[in-house]
């Protein structure tokens, strides 16, 4: 019998949560049978969850091999960060003139949780909370339609951070979150927006992405078909 309250959507959200916590790595295999046993459900339900995740861009199916967490290209990573800038800057801009006392209180509580996780040894909780700050911001600002959008975008950039070995330290992220909230508390919406854009930029710049490692298709084909440089025959 399926576990109570387990549905394909619940399974999909658990996978996204694991990505945000950096417990699932890009390229990691998601076996249908293993997932079915973990959630005590049928493989049919698992397959439906995986199809939801595929539609959201988190997993891909490889012929005769199964389901895998996607490995975002450098261009896909840049696109996700760009989308986050647009969404998060817009959320902060729309907050101007609104009473934010309750929002600030909730965000400060979240940052306190981040700090406790950083001081502790649970890397997964730390990673999840640092990513979830941005989702929490959208939620507290009342942008319910953007919560799921931002969760997916943040999970995409988390995959990029995992794949490209981000050097952005947890303590720095937490401090930058604190600065954003401090600006909001001071009524400086424009400053909070600027700090958010700087924060997202800092995270992106910390990725070890070598653009030269991803030549375009034409260049790649040219390099592939170039003559092999054999050593000269000895005379």
TrEMBL record:
The UniProt keywords, alphabetically, are: DNA-binding, Transcription, Transcription regulation
> What InterPro entries does the annotation carry?
GntR_C, TF_FadR/GntR_C, Tscrpt_reg_HTH_GntR, WH-like_DNA-bd_sf, WH_DNA-bd_sf
Which Pfam families does this UniProt record tie to the protein? FCD (PF07729), GntR (PF00392)
Give every HTH gntR-type domain span. Answer: 5-72
Q: Name one GO molecular function term.
A: DNA binding
The lineage's top-level taxon is Bacteria
List the PROSITE patterns: HTH_GNTR (PS50949)
Write out the coiled-coil annotation as residue ranges. none
Q: What is the recorded name of this protein?
A: DNA-binding GntR family transcriptional regulator
